[in-house]
Design goal:
This protein has 11 helices and 15 strands. With 374 residues, the chain is an alpha/beta fold. The strands form 2 sheets. Strands 11-10-9-8-7-12-6-13-15-14 form a 10-stranded mixed sheet, sandwiched between helices. The chain has a 5-stranded mixed sheet with strand order 2-1-3-4-5, with helices on both faces. α3 (91-97) packs parallel to α4.
Length: 374
């Protein structure tokens, strides 16, 4: 097997391992590592949870437990080995100490604390370094982490469900269930992949959702985020009784994030905190939360990937400001009629020339429905 083919083969295995952490590694990236010696895998591992061993250390331990010596081996890793002391020691030092002779990294770490320093450390120690093997796959796997590190904003995906005639609910608001059980199960996988689920207060008042990921695998539950400009959140909301974090984001008339209540909100603020919520007041834009500021704030909370589950008003506002990176629309073969509710509230869009154009990324059949990714 030629070197280029060999590198791609073993990196593909490392990618497979990295995906094992798809639901558990937040706020860290998903990383896999394979150790190869004399054309044979001698150890492998992946990062499972923040604060636990990184993929490289897991792979070294796996080799040691199997009685394999790592000296002279090649390490295939889906992200540049870290060079700084965080919750765990630098992986660069562990690889050097183990006698690794070559490191193949899919991509450079976008984290400013690393950003090439790990690769430089390995090179200066005499270790051969190669990068860019299956880099596109590596970037896709950690697109939220990359966006947070490079743009100070999470990757935003919005999930919508509609009928064949583009309706999300009946005129009365009745919407359970437009889509099939298979599509709803797929939504829970989207939730599990996400660092946070974001919704608007109108959705909470109408549906009292849990916003939890219910899948048959281990999952770190996403943070629940409610945009609540006027602080209308009921203290009896179901999500406040569930484990995990619930963030309530309200408006203030100051140009900064405030973790304490402004006048007029103190009593409600305290009740929500007593009920288990974290309440923050963020800058406003014409009486509503400034959505760009919301995303910057969430990045500051170490949130990599946001899944939006909301109604036409919030989705319309996000679309208008081009703040959504990916739209996932489940299309059910049903007709709800011209009185049904639409996908987006866009009152200022009146001319065809101003229409919002999207690009298809994928079309997949799930149960009776189609999953459209834009």
């Amino acid at each position: 097997m030629e070197q280029e083919q060999q590198d791609a083969f073993y990196m593909a295995r490392a990618m497979y391992l990295a995906r094992k952490g798809l639901y558990t590694t937040d706020p860290n990236p998903r990383v896999g590592c394979v150790l190869v010696k004399e054309d044979r895998i001698i150890g492998e591992g992946w990062h499972q949870r923040a604060g636990q061993s990184h993929a490289e250390v897991e792979a070294l331990n796996d080799a040691a437990n199997a009685g394999e010596g790592s000296a002279g081996a090649t390490a295939y890793v889906t992200l540049e080995p870290c060079s700084h002391h965080g919750r765990t020691p630098p992986c660069c030092e562990a690889l050097l100490k183990a006698g690794i002779k070559r490191v193949v990294a899919a991509m450079q770490d976008p984290n400013p604390k690393v950003a090439g320093q790990g690769l430089d450390y390995l090179k200066s120690a005499g270790i051969e370094v190669s990068t860019g093997v299956l880099e596109e796959d590596a970037r896709l796997l950690n697109r939220g982490f990359i966006k947070r590190m490079t743009e100070n904003r999470p990757f935003v995906r919005s999930k919508l469900a509609m009928s064949l005639d583009g309706r999300t609910a009946m005129a009365s608001g009745e919407s359970q269930w437009i889509t099939s059980p298979e599509a709803r199960a797929d939504v829970h996988r989207l939730r599990a992949e996400s660092s946070a689920i974001l919704t608007g207060i109108n959705t909470v008042l109408a549906d009292d959702p849990s916003l939890t990921a219910r899948i048959d695998k281990e999952v770190v539950q996403p943070v629940r985020v409610v945009l609540d400009s006027a602080l209308q959140m009921p203290v009896t909301a179901k999500m406040l009784t569930l484990p995990g974090r619930t963030l309530i984001l309200a408006c203030n008339n100051h140009n900064s994030v405030r973790p304490e209540p402004v006048e007029g909100h103190k009593d409600k603020f305290q009740k929500l905190q007593n009920a288990g919520a974290e309440v923050y007041q963020l800058p406003e834009n014409k009486g509503q939360l400034d959505l760009a500021e919301v995303l910057t704030f969430l990045a500051g909370q170490e949130i990599n990937d946001v899944l939006v589950e909301a109604g036409a008003v919030l989705n319309g506002a996000l679309l208008s400001e081009n703040l959504v990176d990916e739209w996932v629309v489940y299309l059910a073969p049903k007709i709800l009629g011209d009185q049904g509710r639409g996908l987006f509230h866009l009152p200022t869009l009146t001319k065809l020339i101003d229409s919002k154009e999207m690009r298809f990324n994928d079309v997949l059949r799930i149960g009776k429905d189609l999953k459209l990714t834009f």
